[in-house]
Automatic annotation (TrEMBL):
GO terms for molecular function: glyoxylate reductase (NADPH) activity; hydroxypyruvate reductase [NAD(P)H] activity; NAD binding. Belongs to the D-isomer specific 2-hydroxyacid dehydrogenase family. Residues 35-45 have a biased composition (Polar residues). CDD domains: Mand_dh_like. Residues 1-45 are annotated as: Disordered. GO terms for cellular component: cytosol. This is D-mandelate dehydrogenase. It comes from the Eukaryota. Residues 119-404 form the D-isomer specific 2-hydroxyacid dehydrogenase catalytic domain. Residues 15-24 have a biased composition (Low complexity).
Length: 411
């Protein structure tokens, strides 16, 4: 899951191995009951307050007023205006120490709060030494240098746990699409409904007749998961036995406990190439690459089983989209589904042509607009989990969903 329109998409933050470490099983998220009440947050701290200061970037909270009541009783919350969050103004405010010695940064929504751009050395160096935690909505963190945060002693917490079910549900639809060629079916039906051209009827009949020969049931086909954290495990639970009957294979930086593998019928592969060689459908569900470079390249695609399928619900920057287009054109990859893109909001033109949206050619690529985690329930969880992470860390307790503790250990 990840960051849409107002957040940049730079190369991923490096992590120590092929996929980032994730805790399994995940801890529960407390109290995620939706409530549409919007709470107004004060824009300036009280000069007489002795409470720790939290810098809230982005929109006011919307869904969890009872948790916010607890949150604001513990902390002095400052919410800079949108103008103050623009990068140059934001950096200047940090230099001026306009918001004092704040202890935490709180970004509860992924659609706002990213106006200052990438959290890199320029911004992180301006933070006061008092900052202990940055808690953000979203699962992806390639817009923040989590290594540098860790070296400064700042725990970065994402909210991927809150989005796991929504992303996994969406992934199921995309995986089915690669087996049943849904872009072709949808494009042909849409053309026949919107055009009076006699070719439209022919397109419908052609798809009806020929898509059958290209489609397969997922059952019995091996599902290869790159990353086996919360999202990967939920995908496995939904598509393995007894539901869809797909054998589950996975690769991750750390092998999961035997009880998790047994319960999900999952087989661990120590290298990515081993996983690709046995997978009929590969799903990328890891938030970062080991070196900030694409994880899916011409070399990795060449290691795939000929005619296998590819799904990306992770980060667009993890895929060399030219290489993917080449693999689709050659038939090395038979179908693909992409929810995230390397240059959002722009979609790779060759992949767009392969979607067959006009019904004139068989569509082999499903394309969506970074929608996988986008549900009301996810937003409720983002907001709640971000507050809970800050309350835990500033109380001297363990963070719920940290991603950079391995960098703190080196300080």
């Amino acid at each position: 899951m990840a960051e849409p329109t107002n957040t940049p998409y730079p190369p991923s933050t490096p992590v120590p191995a092929s996929t980032p470490r994730s805790s399994s099983p995940a801890p529960p998220i407390p109290s995620l009951t939706p409530d549409a009440t919007t709470t107004t947050i004060p824009l300036r701290p009280s000069s007489s307050s002795a409470k720790p200061i939290v810098l809230h970037i982005g929109d006011p909270i919307k869904y969890n007023p009872s948790t916010y009541a607890e949150f604001s009783s513990r902390f002095e919350v400052i919410r800079p205006s949108a103008a103050e969050r623009e990068r140059s103004a934001f950096a200047q405010a940090l230099r001026e120490q306009r918001w004092g010695d704040f202890s935490a940064i709180f970004r509860p929504f992924w659609g706002t709060g990213g106006e200052m751009g990438r959290w890199d050395a320029e911004l992180i160096s301006l933070l006061p030494d008092s900052v202990k935690v940055f808690a953000s909505a979203g699962a992806g963190f390639d817009w923040a240098d989590t290594k540098l945060f860790g070296e400064r002693g700042i725990i970065y917490c994402n909210s991927g746990l809150a989005a796991a079910e929504a992303v996994a549900d969406f992934a199921v639809a995309m995986i089915i699409s690669t087996f049943r060629h849904l872009p072709w079916c949808i494009g042909a039906a849409t053309l026949s409904a919107t055009s009076t051209d006699t070719d439209a009827a022919k397109t419908f009949r052609t798809c009806h007749a020929q898509a059958t020969a290209a489609s397969h049931n997922p059952r019995g086909h091996t599902l290869g998961l790159i990353g086996f954290g919360n999202i990967g495990q939920q995908i496995a639970a939904k598509l393995g036995n007894p539901a869809f009957g797909m054998p589950i294979a996975y690769h991750d930086v750390v092998r999961k406990p035997a009880e998790i593998e047994t319960s999900l019928g999952a087989t661990f592969h120590p290298t990515l190439s081993d996983l690709l060689a046995v997978s009929d459908c590969i799903v990328l569900c890891t938030p970062a690459s080991p070196d900030g470079k694409p994880l899916i390249t011409s070399a990795t695609l060449a290691a795939c089983k000929p005619g296998s399928r590819f799904v990306n619900i992770a980060r667009g920057s993890l895929v060399d989209e030219d290489a993917l287009a080449d693999a689709l054109e050659s038939g090395q990859i038979s179908a693909a589904a992409l929810d995230v893109h390397a240059d959002e909001p722009n979609v790779h033109p060759r992949l767009l042509r392969m979607a067959g949206l006009d019904g004139s050619r068989p569509g082999r690529v499903m394309l969506t607009c970074h929608n996988a985690g986008g549900t009301v329930e996810t937003h409720v969880g983002f907001e709640e989990l971000s507050m809970r992470n800050i309350m835990a860390v500033l109380a001297g307790e363990a963070a719920i969903t940290p991603v950079n503790l391995h960098f703190l250990a080196k300080t």
